[in-house]
Amino acid sequence: MSNKSVDVALIGGGIMSATLGTMIKQLQPDWSIMIFEQLSEVGQESSNPWNNAGTGHAALAELNYMPEAPDGTLETSRAVNINEQFQVSRQFWSSLVAQGVLAHPGSFINPTPHMTFVRGEENVDYLRRRYELLKTEPLFEGIEFSDDPKVIYQWAPLLVRQREKDEKIAATRVNAGTDVDFGSLTHQLIDNLVQNGAVLRTETEVKKLKKQKDGSWNITVRDRVGNTPHTVNAKFVFVGAGGHALPLLQKSGIPEIRGFGGFPISGQFFRTDNPAVVAQHQAKVYGKASVGAPPMSVPHLDTRVVDGQSSLLFGPYAGFSPKFLKSSSWTDLPASIRLHNIGPMLAVARDNFDLMKYLIGELLASKKKKLAALQEFMPTAKAEDWYLITAGQRVQVMKKDAKRGGVLQFGTEVVTAADGSIAGLLGASPGASTAVPIMIDLIQKCFPAEYPRWEKKLAQLIPSFGKKLNPDKKASEKTIAATAKVLELTR
User: Could you report the per-residue pLDDT of 299-332, keeping only the tens digit for each?
Assistant: First the structure.
């Protein structure tokens, strides 16, 4: 592999690299692609179905996409934007199903109602006001609200059974929600890339990135078996290595990464495979985050469908580990500290005391206390039915801020070199669900010469390409119905 040259190098074998590689293969089939994954197979970190909740993030239930302002007002724009992005991903997947790139839709996406469930008078009032605003948005057509325990019982009986009768509760439901197995999706996309000429190198760790005079990159990699170093030259490099993207971009030396830091958060889920319990719940139900909790720690009781089998997950229970990946080193966090990012990182620590307090509380929580959190959602939960699994590692973005010195970001952020020769993705949710629009933005920035002639193909793959669905109700209904039919999501 020494001195091998490729058009595109993808570092990391997760959903982001799989999406970008597939998109490039659709747009420019003659370009050579090489994928580097340090584990023995792809999709084993955040894309693994048991490392995430598998939500098709469309803001149907996630309250953090529509927070209440200090003056009590609510605004729908972010929720609508997240939904727009997920619709783009769905359209891309449906085109790949029609081509045969992806297998039977049920192998990676399944219809699963999305619900929000809250307790207490103030939260009920908030949820009602949120519903009143969202029901007028075309992309949220069909959303239902109820504060009647009998109705909520019909939607999700485990939320109501054995609950105190005088407790104030409310819920919303959207039947058009989905459960997505991003592990299966990743495997299928990368398998198709390899079948069409891409080279996949597993158990291969990227050690160094060095820019050449011609604008290309020399990538020094080391095989874990044999410990043999190699060099590959690539015209374009994408770093889609999850939490490990930060240190790799730092190794590249691009000035655009200066000031960025990473705050790793680990976590756990309770899981049950007991058929008697699983059969009583068919929904993804999101609650409201605790004070100081990051958005990724919003409690939710989820139906998961993996390899055709249904289970339930509850969590996540946040924790702290200095690792940037489940499989990486305990030195990741200290090794990522630089003179240019220590200021923003200290500013974030100063301004996020509630988050630190929350994480310490989560770290000290016993299994009994974690079960009690589940029982707040599901009063009938029994310890013998549930077991803890370790969630994927998340690295939240810390970056410079002119006013505060540094801020903690809870979304995804693309870092791109000025010449477009290298780019990487930092951050967490809702990344996987919005992978397609993220990658469209990336190729527009990184391939400005090619992008204009690629637009026609993108419009074929994504009918709403270049448009917004929400302002046009008829177009929204038509596009969503066509996509749902191909993906077999129509009930």
Answer: 999 999 999 899 999 998 888 889 999 889 999 9
Separation between Cα atoms, residue 332 and residue 384, nearest integer Å: 36
Amino acid (1-letter code) at residue 376: E
Out of 3.30.565.10, 3.20.20.70, 3.50.50.60, 3.40.109.10, the CATH code matching 4-473 is 3.50.50.60
Residue ranges of alpha helices (H) inside 169-238 are 182-195
The secondary structure of 374-415 as a DSSP string is HHHH-TT--GGG-EEEEPPPEEEEEEEETTTEEEEE-SEEEE
Q: What does DSSP assign to residue 166? A: T
pTM above 0.90, yes or no: yes
Per the DSSP assignment, residues forming a β-bridge with 408 are: 398
Q: Give strand ranges (E) for 281-393.
A: 284-286, 300-306, 309-319, 387-390
Low-confidence residues of the chain: pLDDT under 70: 1-3, 290-296, 491
pLDDT of residue 354: 79
Q: How many Å apart are CA 123 and CA 68, to the nearest integer? A: 11
